[in-house]
Design goal:
The chain is an alpha+beta fold. It has 9 helices and 27 strands. The strands form 4 sheets. Strands 15, 16, 17, 18, 19, 20, 21 and 22 form an 8-stranded antiparallel beta sheet that branches. Strand 16 and strand 17 form a beta hairpin.
C-alpha cells in the first residue's frame, strides 16, 4: 500500500526513480485536489527540474512545499531513492507558509518578524492562534549551519505554540541540500508552515539514549563552526576517546553514533552528536556547542521500544492517528539499518500513519538536536 487517505489528510509514496512518474503517482494517491497544503520529501537522486515541472502540472491548485532528504518513510516503509508526501485538506486545516532566504546573512530577528506576520494573517482570518489550535513545522537547508539561530528566532513569537522540524539532506554527500517553495527549489533557505486545526494533535520528540556517570566540560569551542577544541582542558578528541575507553585512532562514525553526548536544559536532556575528528584533535559536532557546556556521555536503549512507547502515549492523548508527520535523524536510520531493525521501525511508524524524511538534524521548540525523532501526531479524538 503506497497511500493512506481520510477526509482530512492523506499520505502517499512512490518508489519510481523517474521524477515525473513519481509526482504523477503521488498526485493520484493523495486523492482529489482539495488540499490546502501538499508537502513532499524527495530523494536527491531525482532530477529537480523535472520534479518542479511535474509539481506545477499536478498540483496547480495547492500550495506545495518540500525538501531533499537522506531517506524517506511513509506507506511504502523506509526507502532511499523515493518520494513521500502528505496533504492537508482545506476543510480541516488553515495554513500560513513563510520562506526565509539567505540564512548565512540572516538578521537575528528575521524568524521572529516572519512568524509574527504569519500569525497576524491567520488571526485576521478569524483563527484562534494558540497552542491548542496551532503548530509550526520547519524545513531548513541542512548544510546552512544556521538552525540554532533560526529556531530560536522563530520560537520567540510562538510562545506556547509547539514547533518541530528537520534539516534537509542529500544521502550523506554533504554537497547540496534544498527546500522547495513558490514553485522552485532554494539553497540557504528555510520554509516554515504554521498550521491551524480543530483536530486534536500533539508535537513530540523521542530519543533512545540515557545518561551515564561520565561527565565532561567544554573548555574551548567555536559555536559558529560547531567545533570543540578542548574538553576538560585537554584536546577534545583525546579526552572524548578517554571517556569512552578508546584511542583517537578508534574513533569512527559508528562510535560517535553509539556514544553521543547529552546536554541538560532544565530537567530535559538533548543529544549532541559528533560529526568527525579533525587533524588538530578537535571535534566537529552536528549541532552548535559552547564553552562551559557540561556534557554527559550517553548510552543507548532499545530504539524500537522507545519509539513505540512514545507513539502509544501520544496516541492515548489524541486518539486514533490520522497522520503523523515525522523527522528522523540520519544517525537513527543508519543504526536501524546496521542492527537490521529498520523494518520493525517502519511497522511501528505505519501504525501511526507516519510520513516524513531522514534528516541532517531535527528541531523541537527552540532547540536544534541530533539522533532524535521529532513530529506531530494528528488524531481523531477517538481512541
Amino acid at each position: 500500500m503506497n497511500s493512506t487517505t481520510s477526509s482530512s489528510v492523506s499520505r502517499a509514496a512512490s518508489t519510481s526513480p523517474d521524477a515525473r512518474t513519481a509526482i504523477a503517482e503521488i498526485a493520484e494517491r493523495l486523492g482529489p485536489a482539495t488540499a490546502k497544503i501538499v508537502c513532499f520529501f524527495a530523494a536527491p537522486t531525482y532530477d529537480r527540474e523535472a520534479l518542479t515541472a511535474a509539481i506545477a502540472e499536478h498540483f496547480a491548485g495547492s500550495t506545495v512545499i518540500g525538501c531533499t532528504t537522506a531517506g524517506e518513510f511513509g506507506p511504502a516503509g523506509y526507502q532511499e531513492g523515493s518520494l513521500s508526501a502528505f496533504a492537508l485538506s482545506e476543510a480541516d486545516f488553515d495554513v500560513e507558509v513563510v520562506r526565509i532566504d539567505s540564512l548565512a546573512h540572516m538578521e537575528i530577528d528575521s524568524g521572529s518578524v516572519a512568524m509574527t506576520s504569519a500569525m497576524m494573517r491567520m488571526r485576521d482570518r478569524g483563527r484562534t492562534v494558540d497552542a491548542d489550535h496551532c503548530f509550526s513545522f520547519l524545513l531548513v537547508d541542512g548544510l546552512s549551519m544556521r538552525e540554532e539561530a533560526l529556531v530560536s528566532s522563530l520560537h520567540l513569537p510562538l510562545g506556547d505554540i509547539c514547533q518541530f522540524g528537520g534539516s534537509a539532506g542529500d544521502d550523506l554527500h554533504f554537497e547540496r541540500t534544498q527546500v522547495f517553495h513558490g514553485g522552485r527549489f532554494h539553497d540557504d533557505a528555510a520554509v516554515v508552515l504554521l498550521v491551524h486545526t480543530e483536530l486534536p494533535f500533539e508535537v513530540f520528540r523521542t530519543q533512545h539514549f540515557v545518561e551515564t556517570d561520565k561527565r565532561m566540560v567544554i573548555t574551548e569551542a567555536d559555536p559558529l563552526t560547531r567545533t570543540v577544541t578542548e574538553i576538560n582542558a585537554e584536546p577534545a578528541a583525546r579526552e572524548y576517546a578517554r571517556q569512552v575507553g578508546l584511542e583517537i585512532s578508534e574513533l569512527t562514525p559508528q562510535v560517535f553514533a553509539t556514544h553521543p553526548v547529552l546536554v541538560k536544559v532544565g530537567a530535559e536532556t538533548f543529544i549532541r552528536s559528533i560529526a568527525r575528528v579533525n587533524d588538530d584533535e578537535s571535534l566537529t559536532f552536528f549541532c552548535a556547542i559552547e564553552a562551559g557546556n557540561v556534557l554527559t556521555v550517553a548510552k543507548g536503549v532499545d530504539l524500537v521500544k522507545s519509539l513505540e512507547l512514545t507513539l502509544d502515549e501520544v496516541r492515548g492523548r489524541v486518539g486514533a492517528p490520522q497522520l503523523t508527520i515525522g523527522c528522523d535523524c540520519i544517525l537513527r536510520s543508519l543504526e536501524a539499518k546496521r542492527c537490521a531493525i529498520r523494518d520493525r521501525v517502519a511497522e511501528v511508524l505505519d501504525q501511526s500513519q507516519a510520513v516524513g524524511f531522514t534528516t541532517y538534524g531535527e528541531q523541537v521548540g527552540s532547540m536544534h538536536v541530533n539522533q532524535t525523532f521529532t513530529g506531530v501526531m494528528i488524531g481523531s479524538g477517538i481512541a
